[in-house]
Design brief:
The protein is α/β, with parallel strands linked by helices and 343 residues long. The strands form two sheets. Strands 4-1-5-10-9-6-7-8 form an eight-stranded parallel sheet, sandwiched between helices. Strands 2-3 form a two-stranded antiparallel sheet. Helix 1 packs parallel to helix 10, helix 2 crosses helix 6 and helix 3 packs antiparallel against helix 4. It is globular.
C-alpha cells in the first residue's frame, strides 16, 4: 500500500463552524491528520511516495473553470475589502432566484456554496490544491503498477460538485483520481463512497457519464446531511442512466446491514467491468462519530477493508470524513491493513 501525505493541509483551519445554532470549533480539524499519521506508522503503512503537484488541466475536467477561479481568488477579493475573518456564506440563490454570478464577493461566496458550515480561509486554496495533488499522485502510482495507494487528503472532497463547495470540501479529490485513471487509459472506473454522508459532489460530476460508475452508501438524506441528494431513485441521466447507485440507510444502521449494501455495490462494480476503483474513505460510520449515526465498530473497518481488497482492482483510497478524532486513525488504518491482507 503506497501512502501519499503532506503538511499542506495545515494552512486551512477555520476559526469556527456553525453547528446546531452555535459557532463551534470545526469538527474537520488538523489533528485528524495527526491521528491518522500515527496509526499508519504504528501499522507499518509507511511506503511513502513523493507528492507531485496536480495538473490544473485535470481540475478543469471535473470542475467548472469559473468555479476554480473563484476558489483561487476568493480570499484576495475578500481581504481587499479590509476583511480579515473567515469567509462564511450568508446569502444563497435558492428557488426562483437569479442564477447570475454577482460581482460582489459576498454574492459570489453564496453563489458557489451550498452549506454555511464551511468557511473559506486565507490558506484554503493552498490546502485544497495540495489535497488534490495527493489524490492525483496516488492515482499515478496505481496507474504505474502499484496495487493500491492511500491519499491522506485534507480538506476532504466528496461534497464538492462541479461548481459549488460545502461540507468542508472545495476540490473533489475522488473525482480527480477517477478522471486521472480515465486519462491514463482506463475505459471504466468506479468510485465507491463509504462515508456516512452522501457524496453529492461526486454524484453531480459524473451523473451524466457512463464511463465512471458512482456508488454511495450513506445516511438517508431525509434525515442526514447533505439532505438534497442521495436518494435511491437517483440513478443517472442521459447516457449516465444506471451508472449512479445510492444506498440510503436509516440512523442506527449496524454493520451486518451496512455490509449488505457494500456487497451489492461491489457486485455491481464487478458487473460494470471497472478497471480501477477509487474509494472515498470516510470513517464517520463509526459508532461514536459525533455528527453521524451508524454503528460500525473498529473491527468492522478491518472486515470491510478485506472485502475491498478481495475485489482485486487497482485501488486508490482518498480520505474523506471521520470526526471521532481519537479513533479516526485506528479505523482508517484498519481499512487499509484489511485491504492489504486480502489483496
Amino acid at each position: 500500500m503506497k501512502v501519499v501525505r503532506s503538511n499542506a493541509h495545515v494552512s486551512h483551519f477555520p476559526k469556527g463552524e456553525l453547528h446546531d445554532g452555535e459557532l463551534v470549533r470545526p469538527f474537520e480539524c488538523p489533528e485528524r491528520v495527526d491521528y491518522i499519521n500515527d496509526a499508519l506508522d504504528a501499522a507499518g503503512l509507511v511506503d511513502e511516495v513523493q507528492v507531485d503537484a496536480v495538473d490544473d488541466a485535470i481540475l478543469s475536467q471535473v470542475h467548472d473553470p469559473d468555479y476554480l477561479e473563484f476558489l483561487r481568488t476568493a480570499w484576495t477579493e475578500w481581504s481587499s475589502l479590509g476583511n480579515t475573518s473567515d469567509m462564511i456564506p450568508t446569502c444563497l440563490p435558492v428557488r426562483r432566484m437569479s442564477q447570475r454570478v454577482p460581482e460582489h464577493i459576498d454574492g459570489k461566496l453564496g453563489y458557489y456554496s451550498f452549506a454555511a458550515e464551511t468557511a473559506i480561509t486565507s490558506g484554503m486554496w493552498q490546502a485544497a490544491h495540495g489535497a488534490a495533488s495527493l489524490a492525483s499522485t496516488a492515482q499515478h502510482c496505481v496507474s504505474a503498477g502499484a496495487t493500491a495507494a492511500f491519499a491522506l487528503c485534507r480538506p476532504p472532497g466528496h461534497h464538492a460538485a462541479a461548481d459549488y463547495f460545502g461540507g468542508y470540501c472545495f476540490i473533489n479529490n475522488a473525482a480527480v483520481a477517477a478522471q486521472g485513471f480515465r486519462n491514463e487509459g482506463a475505459e471504466r472506473v468506479a468510485v465507491l463512497d463509504v462515508d456516512f454522508h452522501h457524496g453529492n459532489g461526486t454524484q453531480d460530476i459524473f451523473y451524466e457519464r457512463n464511463d465512471v460508475l458512482f456508488a454511495s452508501i450513506h445516511g438517508d438524506p431525509m434525515s442526514s446531511f447533505p439532505y438534497y441528494l442521495g436518494h435511491a431513485d437517483e440513478t443517472g441521466s442521459g447516457v449516465g442512466e444506471g451508472y449512479n447507485l445510492n444506498y440510503p440507510l436509516p440512523a442506527g444502521t449496524p454493520f451486518d446491514r451496512w455490509v449488505e449494501a457494500l456487497d451489492d455495490a461491489l457486485a455491481k462494480i464487478a458487473t460494470f467491468g471497472a478497471e480501477a476503483l477509487v474509494v472515498s474513505l470516510g470513517v464517520d460510520t463509526f459508532e461514536a462519530d459525533p455528527i453521524s449515526s451508524f454503528t460500525l465498530t473498529s473491527d468492522d473497518f478491518a472486515t470491510y477493508g478485506r472485502r475491498l481488497g478481495a475485489a482485486g482492482l487497482p485501488t486508490v483510497y482518498v480520505m474523506e470524513g471521520g470526526y471521532a478524532v481519537e479513533e479516526i486513525g485506528t479505523n482508517t488504518a484498519n481499512v487499509l491493513t484489511g485491504h492489504c491482507e486480502s489483496s
